[in-house]
Amino acid sequence: MNPEDNDLAKQVADLIAWKEGIEKSRADRFTGIRNEISTVFSRNQCTMEEAMTVISLVQADLNASFVNKQRAPQ
């Protein structure tokens, strides 16, 4: 496994940790996206840059969801 693969695996693992505390539909959506990224990347159908861009977008979406959940009236 080359170092870039390790970086991607770490990024995905970090994102998995973010899903805690996020409603189930978001967590399920994230899991599906993560699985797709893994499949596409493992088949060499995307570059590391493309995979990292998708990871960044997913993380931004999860961050926004978490912040909005924290701000929502109880």
Please explain how this structure is put together.
It is a single chain. By secondary structure, this protein is mostly helical. It has a domain at 23-62. 80% of the residues lie in helices and 0% in strands. It has 3 helices and no strands. The chain has helices at residues 3-18, 24-42, 48-71. Helix 1 packs parallel to helix 3 (48-71). It is elongated. The mean pLDDT is 73.
Topology, pairings included?
Elements: H1 3-18, H2 24-42, H3 48-71
Helix pairs in contact: 1-3, 2-3
Q: Descriptors for this entry?
A:
single chain; elongated; mainly alpha
Q: How many helical elements?
A: 3
- Count of beta strands: 0
Spatial gap, N to C terminus: 46 Å
Helix content: over 70%
Helix-and-strand structural type: mainly alpha
The ordered string of helix (H) and strand (E) elements is HHH
Low-confidence stretches are none
Q: Strand count, sense and closure of the main sheet?
A: none
Principal-axes geometry comes out as elongated
Summary of the model, kept short:
The protein is mainly α. The protein has helices at residues 3-18, 24-42, 48-71.
